[in-house]
Design a protein that fits this description.
The protein is α/β, with parallel strands linked by helices. It has 5 helices and 4 strands; from the N terminus they run E-H-H-E-E-E-H-H-H. Helices cover 38% and strands 18% of the residues.
Length: 146
């Protein structure tokens, strides 16, 4: 069981850790937890954990993966951000990368999970609107470009 409905964290190299966590991961998680309720979309999903992997290219231990547990009704995503890009970006630029990766990850993998009793399309639209409302993404733009 997740400790809150939306968990956002990272698997990070120490040199870039402060660009991803604690400020950015908390900003995203707090917004999602404050504004979205899974019960609005059905009973098939009650939590999402999202791990950003930002480790040096030679890291062969940490892999991207996605998993949905119908028993726990939780979706787990572990997706990579480009290490060199994060290394040379500001925390604010990294936040925008994280938001795009989060939304695109959901758009890519959530529909494939075919979760029973969950309105995936409305949920994805609401996450996109929430991020657009923060000025993190352009409203009504195909976010796969980011």
């Amino acid at each position: 069981m997740l400790y809150q409905p939306f968990v956002v964290t990272g698997i990070l190299d120490e040199i870039i850790a402060d660009k991803v966590s604690y400020v950015n991961t908390t900003t995203i998680a707090n917004l999602l937890n404050a504004k979205l309720q899974f019960s609005t979309y059905g009973t098939g999903l009650i939590g999402i954990s999202f791990y950003f992997i930002v480790t040096a290219p030679e890291d062969i231990i940490h892999h991207e993966y996605t998993r949905y547990s119908s028993k726990e009704r939780e979706l787990h995503l572990q997706l990579r951000l480009p290490y060199e890009t994060v290394l040379h970006a500001s925390r604010e630029e990294v936040l925008l990368m994280m938001v795009h990766t989060y939304l695109n990850g959901l758009k890519t993998y959530l529909p494939k999970k075919k979760i029973q009793d969950f309105d995936t399309a409305t949920f994805l639209r609401d996450v996109e609107r929430l991020f657009a409302g923060q000025g993190w993404i352009a409203r009504g733009v195909d976010s796969t470009a980011g």
